[in-house]
Amino acid sequence: MKPRVRFAPSPTGYLHIGGARTALFNWLYARHTGGTFILRIEDTDAARNSQEAVDVILTGLRWLGLDWDEGPLTGDATGPSQGDRGPYFQSQRKENYQRRVEALLSRDLAYEHEGAIKFKMTREPVTIPDLVVGEVVRKLTDREEADPDFVILRSDGQPVFHLTNVVDDLEMGITHVIRGEDHLSNTARHIALFRAFGVPPPNYAHIPLILNADGTKMSKRDTGASLPNYLEEGFLPEAVVNFLCLLGWSPKENREKLTLAETIERFDLPQILRHNARFDHEKLLWLQGEYARELNDDRFYELAVHAFAKAGMDTNKFPLTYVKAALDTCKGKFKLFSELPGYAGFYFTDQVEYNVEAAKKDFVPENKPRLEKLRDAFAAAPKFDAATLEATLKETAKALGVKAGVLVHPCRLAVTGNTAGPSLYHLLEVLGKEKVMARVERVLTHPGFSVVLKFILRFGIIVRDLHGLPNAEYVASKPRAFELFQKLRRIAIEPEVKQVLQEDRDGAFSVLCACVDFANFRGTLISFPDIVAAKIEDTEWDRDGITSVPVTWFLMNAIHAMK
């Protein structure tokens, strides 16, 4: 007789990765031996069961590719199924359980106790021949010695797990029970029930538990615990299946990446390891990257477009050739499809958002004329392809006396908003001349390129800081400074800064006062040129007291000192 195995989850929550691994091992054994894989839903706990949980189980198994030979076709307990040993929902098998209980009662193998039905458990040790653990002798515990019998039917008429599990395995002809080691403690009772029903128990194979990387028990909140999260994060099912195989099973030749066909051919119960498995997230990500690189183009495009759609990006708005060219620059460059919108979303948006920390580093005054030179060089390039753009950028860098990276980083940030991504020259080609030139032109107005902003930032005097002061009266007392700050932030050319300061001497004076007042308020030490510092020490901060040190001269001097 060929093996008949089953996966029998309870729909009381998400599908745990341990449950998915149990389903996989059962499925692999059935496929390896030419046997039958059965899906059975243990939904007798009406208070905790949910339709959503049933759907999650079916969706997860189908995503992994674990097709069942017998079992429900939908999440509806009364719906259609395949196989002749159903129903495959325990909630629909109550008559079966009641009939079996009556049989035990009639043979004096069970009895009524306080409205419930208890099974008469053997007082002798039970030997469990296990295909993974080995032979286990289960003796009664001290508490069981006093009362070894256990409930099989509650006083409300609900059958208990021990009964339903055994009855279903018996009536569905299960030959091998492959389940987690945490069920080993139940097995003596199950063997006793099988014997009471007059049939030999199935072969048992209790597989090791899955622990966290640090050896602690994996809870539902731990990384990798919930199978639905793998779907959300953009994992490939073949990568997850490969990874799950390695959690407690060791193929020959110490290989880690195997095709499904190879795994089916090699899988057998004697190769299941005895010690608990540890969840290695880095290995999972490595496998994911390997499988992602090997995807054929059509499937890669399909999964990528789906990932963008989940992130709210509609690739259908763009020509198909453009979408494929954009995605081609990404293949093999990322692991999870959930990372793709952040990695290459710039292809499918008109408004690029700049990485804040990178902007502080790359959008600085000295880079503005460099980007302007690069813009002009790109505009004059004979062709707008990757090879020409790479040569153009390197020639421009050489003419400016800087390394290519000095132009690469601000250019990438300008057109993608990110510090990393696809090859710069290839993504420029895909974006096209019109988009690239528009994005570079736009970034040149970024306030980070303003000389005066660099000066203001150095002093810690920026609009948001001024707003954020705890003393509202202080803010109200500096309206001229506040107004001029906003005006100065929009200026990028130094001569214009000087002109604005000269035209608004009262405002400039307020800026000067705000700089020192604010610094004093924050307890910050400001280093000015010596002559200015000496002059400040002698002044009372009134307009007439510093006429010998013009405010405009002071501010411009400070700007130069901080370059």
Short description:
This protein is mainly alpha-helical. It is built from 27 helices and 13 strands.
Polypeptide structure, described:
This protein is mainly α and 563 residues long. The protein contains 27 helices and 13 strands. The strands form six sheets. The protein has a three-stranded antiparallel sheet. Helix 1 links the parallel strand 1 and strand 2. It is elongated and about 105 Å long.
Number of helices: 27
Q: Which residues form runs of ≥5 with pLDDT under 50?
A: 452-476, 516-563
CA(first)-CA(last) distance? 85 Å
Strand content: 5-15%
Largest sheet properties: 3 strands, antiparallel
If strands are numbered along the chain, what order do they take across the biggest sheet? 5-6-9
Instruction: Look at the structure and give the mean pLDDT.
Output: 84
Helicity level: 40-55%
What structural class do you assign from the helix and strand content? mainly alpha
Number of strands: 13
| Oligomeric state of this protein | single chain
What Rg do the Cα atoms give?
36 Å
Overall morphology: elongated
Give me the secondary-structure topology.
Layout: E1 4-7, H1 17-33, E2 36-39, H2 51-64, E3 71-72, E4 81-82, H3 94-106, E5 110-113, E6 116-119, E7 126-130, E8 134-138, H4 142-146, E9 150-153, H5 161-171, E10 176-180, H6 187-196, E11 203-207, E12 210-211, H7 227-233, H8 237-245, H9 260-266, E13 277-278, H10 281-293, H11 297-310, H12 320-328, H13 340-344, H14 356-362, H15 368-380, H16 386-400, H17 404-416, H18 424-431, H19 433-443, H20 451-459, H21 463-468, H22 472-476, H23 479-489, H24 494-503, H25 505-522, H26 530-538, H27 551-561
Parallel strand pairs: 1-2, 10-11, 12-13
Antiparallel strand pairs: 3-4, 5-6, 6-9, 7-8
